[in-house]
User: Fold this.
Amino acid sequence: MSILSIRNLQTEFRGPAGIARAVDGVSFDVNPGEIFGIVGESGCGKSATCRSILRLFAGATARIVGGEVILEGTGDLAQMRESDLARVRGREVAFIFQDPLTALNPTMRIGKQVAEVIRRHRKVSRTEAREAALQLLRDVHITSPERRLDAFPHELSGGLRQRVVIAMALALQPRLIIADEPTTALDVTVQDQILRLLKERRDGTGTSIIFITHDLGVVSQICDRMAVMYAGRVVETGSVRQVLDHPSHPYTRALLDALPGQVSRDRDLTPIEGSPPSLITPPSGCRFAPRCRVARPCCAQGAAPVLKPRSGVSADHLDACILTEVPDAIA
Amino acid sequence: MIQVIFKRLLMLVPVLIGITLIGFLLLQVMPGDAAERAMGTRASAEELAEMRRLWGLDLPVWQQYLLFLRDCLTGSFGVSIFHKKEVITLVAERLPFTLGIVALSTLIALVIALPFASLAALRRGRPADHAIRQIFVALIAVPPFWLSYVLILWLSLRLGWFPTGGVGEGLAENLYRLFLPSLVVGLSTAALIQQTLRAALIDTMKADYVDTARAKGLRRHEIFLRHVMPNSLISTISIIGVRVSWIIGGTVVVEKIFSVPGLGSLLIDAIVSRDLPVIRGLTVFFAIMVVIVNLITDILYALADPRVRLE
Assistant:
C-alpha cells in the first residue's frame, strides 16, 4: 500500500498571459520509507505538483482543477477543506523549501520558529516546546544549539538555515516529507551533508520523502524510485536504476546525454534543441515531439500519450512515448 | 548604541550651521521692517531708531548673524520682539500642545489604518479593497481646513461632543480638547499609512517564509498576525517618522482653526509680525526636531528588524 497516491492531478495557474495548466494529469505513488525523486527542467511542473499536494501556492493564483491526492489513512487532500488540510500540514506531511535564505521569518528567533510548529499541533507549554526545539536542532546536527535558539536567521549560514528548515519539517515526525530542491541554493559540500541528513532520517524513522531536483546525480545518489516530468506531465517513471540505466523515453535519454558525467571523452555534450512548450496553449500529441530527434508525424497528433509499461521491460517501469520501438541512437 | 546616538547628534553640527546661515540670509531679504511692525505706524523716527538699537537691527549683517549664533549656542534662540520673551520659553510653552497633536494623531491614524490596511490586503482586488482605497484617497484629497470645519459643525456644534477649539488645564482635559484637531491630522496620516501598509502586507504575503508558516499548518490568522503583520509594519515606521517631522511644524491651518497655541501658529504669528528672532529660532528648532525624529525612527527600525544595524 502506498503512502501517497496521486491520480491524474491537474493544477492551473492564472497569470496575465492566461491560464497555464502547470500540472496536467500527473499520477504517481510513493511507498512507505522510500525516497521518490522528481526530475525535470525548470518550469516542467515538478514544483507545482508537489505544492499541489499541500496546496501551498505562495502568492500565485493557483487551483487544483482535477484529480486526487490520496494520503493513506487520511483521504483525498485535494478535496479537503483548508482548515482540515492545515492540520495535515506540518504534522503528517511536511515541506522543505528550496531557498533556506528566504524560507525563515527574518524577524523571528530560530527557537520560536521551530517551537511554533510543535505548539500548533501538540498541547505543550512554551518551555516544553522550546526544549523540543532544542532537541530537534541537535537531531539535525546543529552545533551549539542552545545558542542558535535565540539567533535570528540572518546570523546563520545557508547550510545551518536549511538544517533549521529541516528541523521544523521533522518536528512532528511526519509520514511524508516533500523536499523542493532543498540543496539547489547550497554549495556542494553543504549539499552533501543535507542529503545525508535526509537519508539518515529516512533510514531511522521510515519517513517517505519526495525529492524534487533537476540534478540527476543527486537522484542517483539518494532516490529509490523516480519520475521524469516534461511540460506538466510525467513522461517516465520507475526505479532509479531502471530509469537512469535503461531510459526508455526519448526525453529521459536526451536529458542524460546533456549531462556531463555521462559523457565519454570522445563525445560532446548534446544539448536538447529548442525550449519547452507553452503550458497555456500546449501542443497536441506528445509534448516533447517538437524537440524530439526520433519523432514521427503521428507523435504530434491526438491526445497526450499516457504512461504504460514497454513490452519486454519490467511492469513498474513506465514511459509515455507514443512510439512502440524507440531507436537507441538519439544522439 | 549610545555611541551611535552620540555620533548622529554630532552630525547635527554641520546641518545646523547650514540651517542658521540659510535661515538668517533668507530673512534678511524678506521685505518689511521689524521695528516698524513692533512699534506701530505712529512711532517717531527716534523711537524707531532706539528700537533698532535695542534689538541689534542696526548692526552690520555679519554681526547680527554672530549674535544669532550666540543665542543658539546659549540655548535661548534669541528674544522675541513681539512677546519680549526668550524664544526657547515660547517654544517650551507651546511644544506640549504640538507634541500632543503628534502623539494623538499618530495613535488615531494607527487605530484607523491597521484594520483597514489588513482588510484591503486580505481582500485585494475585490470590492472591499476598492471601496477602502476610494475612501482613503478622498481623505488625502480633502483639504484639512474643510475637514476641520465639517467636524466642528457636526461633532461640536450639532452633537456637542467636543469643544470647537482652545486648550485647557491638565493632561486629560487637553487630550480631550486636542482630539478634533488630532483627528483631522490623523485622518490624512491614516490614509498614508493605510496605503503603504496595504502594499507591504500584500508583498509580505508572497514571501517564502509565509509559505513556510502555512506548511507548518498554522491557521490564517496566526500566519497573518505572527508573520505577515510584524514584517510589514517595519516599512511603515519610516513613513510615520517622516509624517511626524512634518506635523511638528506643519499643522498651522489646523492649529489656527482650533485655536491651539502650538508651534505652527507661533511661526505664522511671528512671520506676520516680522518677529525675526522667533522665525530664526523656530527654523533652527524645527531642524533639530527633524534630525531627532529621524534618529528615533532609525533606532525603532533597528529594534524592529534584527537585520538592520544602527550605524
About this structure: The CA atoms of residues 110 and 148 of chain A lie 7 Å apart. Chain A touches chain B at residues 54, 56, 58-59, 83, 86-91, 94-95, 97, 99, 102-108, 116-117, 120-121, 152, 154, 165, 168 (CB under 8 Å). Chain A has a mean pLDDT of 87.
